[in-house]
Write a structure and sequence with these properties.
CATH superfamily: Hotdog Thioesterase
Strand content: 35-45%
Helix content: 10-25%
Structural class: mainly beta
Number of strands: 8
Largest sheet: 6 strands, antiparallel
Number of domains: 1
Length: 141
Amino acid sequence: MAEVELDIKKILPHRYPMLLIDKVIDVQPGKSCQAIKNITNNEAVVQDYADGIARYPQMLMVESMAQAGAVALLSLPEFKGRIAFFGGIEKASFNGWAYPGDTLELAVELTKLKQNAGIGEGRVMVAGKEICTATLTFLVS
Protein backbone atom coordinates (compact mmCIF):
# COMPACT_ATOMS: atom_id res chain seq x y z
CA MET A 1 0.00 0.00 0.00
CA ALA A 2 1.44 3.37 -1.01
CA GLU A 3 1.64 6.15 1.51
CA VAL A 4 -0.36 9.23 0.54
CA GLU A 5 0.56 12.86 0.99
CA LEU A 6 -2.41 14.37 2.73
CA ASP A 7 -2.69 17.49 4.88
CA ILE A 8 -5.03 16.31 7.62
CA LYS A 9 -5.53 19.90 8.82
CA LYS A 10 -7.06 20.83 5.45
CA ILE A 11 -9.73 18.15 5.92
CA LEU A 12 -10.42 18.12 9.68
CA PRO A 13 -11.03 21.19 11.86
CA HIS A 14 -9.29 19.52 14.84
CA ARG A 15 -6.05 20.93 16.21
CA TYR A 16 -3.75 20.01 19.07
CA PRO A 17 -4.58 18.58 21.56
CA MET A 18 -7.71 17.09 19.91
CA LEU A 19 -6.25 16.12 16.54
CA LEU A 20 -5.83 12.42 17.27
CA ILE A 21 -4.36 11.09 14.04
CA ASP A 22 -0.79 11.84 13.01
CA LYS A 23 -0.64 10.53 9.47
CA VAL A 24 -2.95 9.14 6.82
CA ILE A 25 -1.44 6.04 5.22
CA ASP A 26 -4.18 5.36 2.68
CA VAL A 27 -7.53 6.91 1.84
CA GLN A 28 -10.20 5.77 -0.58
CA PRO A 29 -12.65 8.72 -0.62
CA GLY A 30 -16.07 7.64 0.56
CA LYS A 31 -14.83 4.12 1.26
CA SER A 32 -11.97 3.79 3.75
CA CYS A 33 -9.07 5.36 5.58
CA GLN A 34 -5.99 3.92 7.23
CA ALA A 35 -4.07 6.20 9.55
CA ILE A 36 -1.68 6.13 12.48
CA LYS A 37 -1.51 7.79 15.88
CA ASN A 38 1.75 7.67 17.83
CA ILE A 39 1.33 7.53 21.60
CA THR A 40 3.86 9.55 23.61
CA ASN A 41 4.40 10.52 27.23
CA ASN A 42 4.18 14.18 26.16
CA GLU A 43 0.42 14.02 25.70
CA ALA A 44 -1.62 15.35 28.58
CA VAL A 45 -4.17 12.57 28.09
CA VAL A 46 -1.58 9.84 28.75
CA GLN A 47 -1.77 9.52 32.50
CA ASP A 48 -0.96 7.03 35.20
CA TYR A 49 -4.03 5.03 36.09
CA ALA A 50 -4.71 3.74 39.60
CA ASP A 51 -2.21 0.95 38.98
CA GLY A 52 0.56 3.48 38.19
CA ILE A 53 0.80 2.55 34.50
CA ALA A 54 0.54 5.33 31.89
CA ARG A 55 -1.75 4.52 28.96
CA TYR A 56 -3.84 6.11 26.24
CA PRO A 57 -7.55 6.35 27.18
CA GLN A 58 -9.67 3.81 25.34
CA MET A 59 -12.37 6.34 24.49
CA LEU A 60 -9.76 8.41 22.66
CA MET A 61 -9.01 5.32 20.55
CA VAL A 62 -12.64 5.57 19.42
CA GLU A 63 -12.23 9.29 18.69
CA SER A 64 -9.06 8.52 16.69
CA MET A 65 -11.06 6.01 14.61
CA ALA A 66 -13.82 8.59 14.15
CA GLN A 67 -11.33 11.14 12.86
CA ALA A 68 -9.96 8.60 10.37
CA GLY A 69 -13.52 7.87 9.24
CA ALA A 70 -14.15 11.59 8.85
CA VAL A 71 -11.10 11.83 6.57
CA ALA A 72 -12.58 9.09 4.34
CA LEU A 73 -15.95 10.86 4.27
CA LEU A 74 -14.69 14.43 3.83
CA SER A 75 -12.32 13.36 1.04
CA LEU A 76 -15.36 13.01 -1.22
CA PRO A 77 -15.60 16.02 -3.58
CA GLU A 78 -19.19 16.74 -2.52
CA PHE A 79 -18.11 17.09 1.15
CA LYS A 80 -14.96 19.16 0.58
CA GLY A 81 -14.77 22.02 3.07
CA ARG A 82 -17.60 20.67 5.22
CA ILE A 83 -17.50 19.35 8.78
CA ALA A 84 -18.20 15.78 9.89
CA PHE A 85 -19.68 15.23 13.33
CA PHE A 86 -19.29 12.05 15.32
CA GLY A 87 -22.91 10.95 15.59
CA GLY A 88 -22.70 7.77 17.65
CA ILE A 89 -20.95 4.58 18.73
CA GLU A 90 -22.34 1.08 18.58
CA LYS A 91 -20.78 -2.25 19.44
CA ALA A 92 -17.57 -0.82 20.87
CA SER A 93 -15.21 -3.50 22.10
CA PHE A 94 -11.95 -2.95 23.97
CA ASN A 95 -9.45 -5.79 24.04
CA GLY A 96 -6.28 -4.08 25.21
CA TRP A 97 -4.43 -0.87 25.90
CA ALA A 98 -1.99 1.42 24.11
CA TYR A 99 1.06 2.69 25.98
CA PRO A 100 3.62 5.43 25.34
CA GLY A 101 5.82 4.26 22.49
CA ASP A 102 2.99 2.38 20.77
CA THR A 103 1.61 3.26 17.34
CA LEU A 104 -2.14 2.94 16.85
CA GLU A 105 -2.92 1.51 13.43
CA LEU A 106 -6.37 2.88 12.60
CA ALA A 107 -8.61 1.43 9.91
CA VAL A 108 -12.14 2.58 9.11
CA GLU A 109 -14.32 1.27 6.32
CA LEU A 110 -17.46 3.24 5.47
CA THR A 111 -20.23 0.69 5.04
CA LYS A 112 -23.21 2.95 4.40
CA LEU A 113 -23.53 6.46 2.98
CA LYS A 114 -26.81 8.31 2.62
CA GLN A 115 -26.98 12.02 1.74
CA ASN A 116 -25.23 13.67 4.70
CA ALA A 117 -24.74 10.63 6.97
CA GLY A 118 -22.55 7.56 7.05
CA ILE A 119 -21.77 4.47 9.07
CA GLY A 120 -18.33 2.95 9.39
CA GLU A 121 -16.65 -0.07 10.91
CA GLY A 122 -13.44 0.83 12.69
CA ARG A 123 -10.61 -1.00 14.34
CA VAL A 124 -7.43 -0.15 16.20
CA MET A 125 -4.38 -2.39 16.12
CA VAL A 126 -1.09 -2.15 18.00
CA ALA A 127 1.78 -4.30 16.71
CA GLY A 128 -0.68 -6.45 14.78
CA LYS A 129 -3.00 -7.05 17.75
CA GLU A 130 -6.57 -5.73 17.56
CA ILE A 131 -7.30 -3.75 20.72
CA CYS A 132 -10.48 -1.87 19.81
CA THR A 133 -13.39 -2.12 17.36
CA ALA A 134 -16.54 -0.05 16.95
CA THR A 135 -19.35 0.84 14.60
CA LEU A 136 -19.37 4.62 14.12
CA THR A 137 -22.00 7.02 12.81
CA PHE A 138 -21.07 10.28 11.06
CA LEU A 139 -23.13 13.32 10.12
CA VAL A 140 -21.90 15.95 7.67
CA SER A 141 -22.84 19.60 8.07
